[in-house]
């Protein structure tokens, strides 16, 4: 008999959690499972499911906030943030949603709930406790806030939270009790992220000469991602090392974050006199079409980034990757093999970038190793099979008891 599984997913844009869940569902076991997904609204995540023609029942509940910072007020048609009021409203919405879960669980005959994302984990733990249903967490973040870390560890001890899938060893290490935890990295469909198959857009769209070396980065433009440091490196390499390169940032700031950072980055580029050498592409749904034109991928995070998907995407596209040996980044980059993994605070970052700029053979060799590792270790079919095995093990053990 097919089991009924409910995925709780509040990440509906094209960020890491939503994209990772999409790849899991793309390769899921539909012979043995009826798949349901609870989402706040239809967006890019839903579009991806539709394009892939996946047999997924989408349960749309607008009162399930995408983010606790979700803006609830508008002024002359523009969303405005009143943080504490928004926070209270969104928490109330979650509690209302908690009681509505009873009907969803009953109507869809849910046997197991899979929580994808930060907010989903806490909410799912409460659902498990209230309705006595088994829960799987997929943990994609590392909490630095003391209260949130305490809350995460406390909720993880709830008996109905049966498995905790962590995207990296660094992510797993935040749990005091790791008996429920297992490490399964983020995955991508490496058949999609092939340099020869992806249509390159960056050079043509921004009229970049084919001989120019492009050093690029990508991601959500939020403070912890370290994009200010990327701008500083661009200035140093341009002025100190006199390298005639192009620096590219692909991404934007989500609407529920303060937009000031992007404005500050653009001001810094102007003030450092590198505006002709620095490109902000803004948000791109097909980020691979821009990364494929990079010669070097740099990830500037200097905080414990759990396991950024964009690193694996760049690896699959055959790019040498430079980043810091912290969080999941250091687990993906094999130093001096598929890129450079440097200590936080290292003064050698610009030197290593310049080394790659000047050595085409080194770039090619490291790019080859990146692609090889992505296919062997991070392909979404491999990752999906690991997750499905964990789900089946949980169901089997539950059946025995």
Overview of this structure, please?
The chain has 401 residues and is an alpha/beta fold. Helices cover 42% and strands 18% of the residues. It folds into two domains: 3-187 and 379-400, Rossmann fold, CATH 3.40.50.2000; 202-377, Glycogen Phosphorylase B (Rossmann fold, 3-Layer(aba) Sandwich), CATH 3.40.50. It contains 15 helices and 15 strands. Helix 3 (83-107) packs across helix 4 (118-131), helix 4 runs parallel beside helix 5 and helix 11 (309-316) packs across helix 14 (360-377). It starts with a strand and ends with a helix.
List the helices and strands and how they pair.
Blueprint: E1 3-9, H1 16-26, E2 33-39, H2 44-51, E3 56-60, E4 73-75, E5 78-80, H3 83-107, E6 112-116, H4 118-131, E7 134-139, H5 146-156, E8 161-166, H6 169-172, E9 181-183, H7 202-205, E10 214-218, H8 227-239, E11 246-250, H9 260-271, E12 278-282, H10 288-291, E13 296-298, H11 309-316, E14 321-324, H12 329-332, E15 339-342, H13 349-358, H14 360-377, H15 380-400
Parallel strand pairs: 1-2, 1-6, 2-3, 6-7, 7-8, 8-9, 10-11, 10-13, 11-12, 13-14, 14-15
Antiparallel strand pairs: 4-5
Helix pairs in contact: 3-4, 4-5, 11-14
Task: Sum up the structure in keywords.
6-stranded parallel sheet, Rossmann fold, about 400 residues, 15 helices, alpha/beta
Using DSSP, what is the number of strands? Answer: 15
Mean pLDDT: 93
What is the succession of H and E elements? EHEHEEEHEHEHEHEHEHEHEHEHEHEHHH
Structural class: alpha/beta
Q: What is the CA-atom radius of gyration, in angstroms?
A: 22 Å
Order of the strands making up the biggest sheet? 3-2-1-6-7-8-9
CATH topology of the largest domain: Rossmann fold
Beta-strand content:
15-25%
Distance between the termini: 18 Å
Spatial shape: globular
- In CATH terms, what is the architecture of the largest domain? 3-Layer(aba) Sandwich
State the helical fraction. Answer: 40-55%
Discrete helix count: 15
CATH class group of the largest domain: Alpha Beta
Number of domains: 2
Oligomer: single chain
Largest sheet: 7 strands, parallel
Name given to the CATH homologous superfamily of the largest domain = Glycogen Phosphorylase B
Low-confidence stretches: none
């Amino acid at each position: 008999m097919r089991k009924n599984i409910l995925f709780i997913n509040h990440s509906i844009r094209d960020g890491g959690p939503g994209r990772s869940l999409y790849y899991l569902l793309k390769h899921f076991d539909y012979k043995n499972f009826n798949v349901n997904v609870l989402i706040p609204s239809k967006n890019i995540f839903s579009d991806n499911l539709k394009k892939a023609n996946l047999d997924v029942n989408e349960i749309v509940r607008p009162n399930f906030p995408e983010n606790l910072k979700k803006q609830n007020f508008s002024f002359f048609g523009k969303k405005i943030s009143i943080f504490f009021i928004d926070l209270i409203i969104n928490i109330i919405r979650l509690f209302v949603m908690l009681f509505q879960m009873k009907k969803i669980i009953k109507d869809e005959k849910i046997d197991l709930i899979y929580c994808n994302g930060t907010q989903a984990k806490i909410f799912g733990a409460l659902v498990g406790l209230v309705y006595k249903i088994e829960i799987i967490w997929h943990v994609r973040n590392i909490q630095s806030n003391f209260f949130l870390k305490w809350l995460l560890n406390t909720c993880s001890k709830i008996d109905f939270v049966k498995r905790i899938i962590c995207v990296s060893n660094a992510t797993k290490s935040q749990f005091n009790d790791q008996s429920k935890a297992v490490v399964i990295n983020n995955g991508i469909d490496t058949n999609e992220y092939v340099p020869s198959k992806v249509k390159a857009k960056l050079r043509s769209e921004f009229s970049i000469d084919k001989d120019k070396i492009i050093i690029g980065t990508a991601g959500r433009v939020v403070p912890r991602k370290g994009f200010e440091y990327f701008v500083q490196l661009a200035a140093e390499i341009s002025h100190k090392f006199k390298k005639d390169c192009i620096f590219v940032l692909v991404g934007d700031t989500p609407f529920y974050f303060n937009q000031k950072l992007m404005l500050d980055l653009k001001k810094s580029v102007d003030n450092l006199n590198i505006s002709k050498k620095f490109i902000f592409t803004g948000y791109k749904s097909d980020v691979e079409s821009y990364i494929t034109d990079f010669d070097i991928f740099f990830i500037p995070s200097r905080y414990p980034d759990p396991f950024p998907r964009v690193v694996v995407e760049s690896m699959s596209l055959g790019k040498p990757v430079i980043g810091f040996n912290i969080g999941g980044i250091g687990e993906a980059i094999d130093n001096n093999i598929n890129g450079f993994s440097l200590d936080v605070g290292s003064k050698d970052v610009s030197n290593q970038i310049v080394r790659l700029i000047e050595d085409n053979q080194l770039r090619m060799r490291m790019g080859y190793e990146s692609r090889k590792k992505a296919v062997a270790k991070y392909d979404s079919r491999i990752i999906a099979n690991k997750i499905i095995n964990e789900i089946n093990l949980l169901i089997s053990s539950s059946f025995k008891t």
